[in-house]
Amino acid sequence: MTPTPSQIAFFATAAKGTEGALRDELRELRLYHVRADRGGVHFEGRWEDGWFACLHSRIALRILAQMGRFEAPDGPALYDGVRQIDWTPFLTPEHTLAVSAACRSGGLTHTGFIAQKTKDAVVDQLRDLLALRPSVDRKDPDVSLFVHIAKDQATVYLDLAGESLHRRGYRAEHLEAPLKETLAAAILRLCGWDRVSPLVDPMCGSGTIPIEAALWAGNVAPGLLRRRFGFERWACHDATAAARMAEIRSVAMAARRDTDVDILGCDIDPAAIDLAGSNARKAGVRPRFEPGTVETLRHGDGPGFVVVNPPYGERLDADPALYDGMSAAFRSQRGHCIAVLAGSPAIEHAMRRQPDKWYALFNGDLECRLLIYRNAV
Ligand SMILES: C[S@@+](CC[C@H](N)C(=O)[O-])C[C@H]1O[C@@H](n2cnc3c(N)ncnc32)[C@H](O)[C@@H]1O
User: Fold this and answer.
1) What's the 286 CA to ligand 1 centre distance in angstroms?
2) Over the stretch 215-268, which tens digit does the pLDDT of each residue have?
């Protein structure tokens, strides 16, 4: 069973700009001491609260458990600090590990060196105790560590998720320029969608926004689509822990609900419509997908949401005439909330009015604005 210090300090990482949305989500999930920070959200709890967050969070990229925090102005101090932590509950010489690192301002400036020193300390601890050492597997490790160093303070974490949580598993293939599932989920929350009003993504590509909307409306925990998380490969994840995790999964299964919310995805590209449909089937949800152009969008009058991620020109061609046509179509959707993830100022310009609200978000490395407009009835 996983060792049980009474409270573990967790850090859920998030795409820049989505920390507030993740904080609100984790509070709704009734996790404790939830506090937003740069790049993510802190919370505290037992190990199983971390498992629960892996299963239920739609916005977090990773759930990290803090294993140690110490001064590390140089390599020997980092090595000693990591060796002080007892790694034996988590891995044996039969397990593989990988270490990643990030740093800013301090004596240690090279992430490759930080990862190497950390790995050496873990491996040496096990070798000295058990005469055998675990090996490194950067692609598919059993145990993933993350080290963050800022102003000579090192924080060492275990990564519970393993593979990033945006990889839900339903989008095996994709078209160009898909949104990360976690970013789509954050946009749905930030624009204030109530999980009941009709929603359309008129440029849906591989269907990420409608699929995430349907999962949320159906109260489907996104982690249910995954076979297993990183922590389920740790040495301490024994039969008792596995049985507890099975219970947490079955509670989540029972909480799914049927929904008849009208969720629609359209795209000019018939191949995108086929792909979006196949992705939705893999996710076990049924938003509607139809071919169509954004310029001819008619989503009915009355309350509704348009949530869209138009092409920007960076990865897909952007066309000023497309933005003008899109903007005119959006203005005609009476009573609607229009949420546009704009990766280019030309999109905001074409909208021809100030957004009622906006957020700075990062789509990968690309700084974007989520523009929110509320149309009169
Ligand atoms: C940035 S991609 C959307 C990606 C999507 N959010 C996803 O996660 O896969 C933009 C999409 O707009 C579509 N598109 C371009 N012009 C369009 C138009 N006039 N009407 C409807 N869709 C259009 C493209 O085919 C492309 O799939």
Assistant:
1) 20
2) 999 999 999 999 999 999 999 999 999 999 999 999 999 999 999 999 999 999
Residue ranges covered by each domain of the chain: 8-159, 181-220+258-374
205: CA distance to ligand 1 center in Å? Answer: 5
Q: Is residue 188 a contact partner of residue 212, using CB atoms and an 8 Å limit? A: yes
Q: Output the pLDDT for position 105.
A: 80
267 close to ligand 1 (CB < 6 Angstrom): yes
The structure tokens listed for 146 are 């993350």
**8-159 and 181-220+258-374, same CATH topology:** no
Report, as an integer, the average pLDDT of 46-65: 98
Fold assignment, 8-159: VC0802-like (3.30.2130)
**How deeply is 75 buried, as exposed, middle or buried, from its count of CB atoms within 10 A (0-12, 13-18, 19+)?**
middle
Q: Is the CB of 208 under 6 A from ligand 1?
A: yes
Q: Is the pLDDT of residue 309 over 90?
A: yes
CATH tag for 181-220+258-374 (out of 3.40.50.1000, 1.20.58.340, 3.40.630.10, 3.40.50.150): 3.40.50.150
3-state secondary structure of 307: strand
Q: Tell me how far the alpha carbon of residue 351 lies from the centroid of ligand 1, in angstroms.
A: 17
Cα(271) to centroid of ligand 1, in Å? 11
Ligand 1 neighbour 18 (Cβ under 6 A): no
The verdict on the CB of residue 40 being under 6 Å from ligand 1 is no
> What pLDDT is attached to residue 4?
60
Strand order of the β-sheet with 263-267 is: 288-291, 263-267, 199-201, 304-308, 336-342, 366-374, 357-363
Q: What is the pLDDT of residue 345?
A: 92
Tell me the average pLDDT of the chain: 94
- In testing the pocket of ligand 1, which one of 199, 211, 267 has its CB within 8 Å of the most ligand atoms? 267
